[in-house]
Each structure stands twice: as C-alpha cells, then as structure tokens.
Amino acid sequence: MPPPPIWGLISASVGVMLHHSKLLSLGARAMELDELNGRYQHLRTELDAAYAEPVWDSSRINRIAEDLIPVELALASFEHQHPGHEGASHV
Fold first, then answer.
1. 52 exposed, middle or buried (CB, 10 Å; 0-12, 13-18, 19+)?
2. Would you list the domain boundaries of the chain?
3. What is the distance between the alpha carbons of residues 36 and 30, in angstroms, rounded to a whole number?
4. pLDDT tens across 27-85, in order?
C-alpha cells in the first residue's frame, strides 16, 4: 500500500528545510537581528495579504512560506544563542 499523499508533502518540506538550513549557515548568520525581524514582519504581512485574497494563489503562498523558513530558523537560532534577548520581537 503506497504512503498517503501527505507523506510526499512532508518529505518535500523536510527537504526544503534542510536546504534552507544550509543556506542559513552560509548567509543568514550575517544578518543582524533587526534585519531578521524586519524580513520576518515583511513576509508575514505578505502572507497575510495572500491569505486575505478571495482566491488563494497557492504558488505565491508556498513561495512566501518557503521564504519564511530560513528567517524563522535564524531567529530561533538567535534566541537559542541569546536567551532572554529583548530584541527578538518577531512573534
């Protein structure tokens, strides 16, 4: 019996996350916390606007969600390395 279709999506998501985590280690470390927070807020606003449309553009939503992954990983990494830092205000 083949795996349910959701497994393909999960596998693809994990692959994207691993790919983005490699990019994170190369480029996103250089971003300052303010840049990360600004990028996160911009992407969240864009994602909210995409979901507010009467007809959802799934490719746009997927692109925004994929763009959010390295930013969220970088913010989480910053939080882990600097617990209690007041500047991490992405939530």
1. exposed
2. 5-81
3. 10
4. 545 457 889 999 999 999 999 999 999 999 999 999 999 999 999 998 888 777 766 65
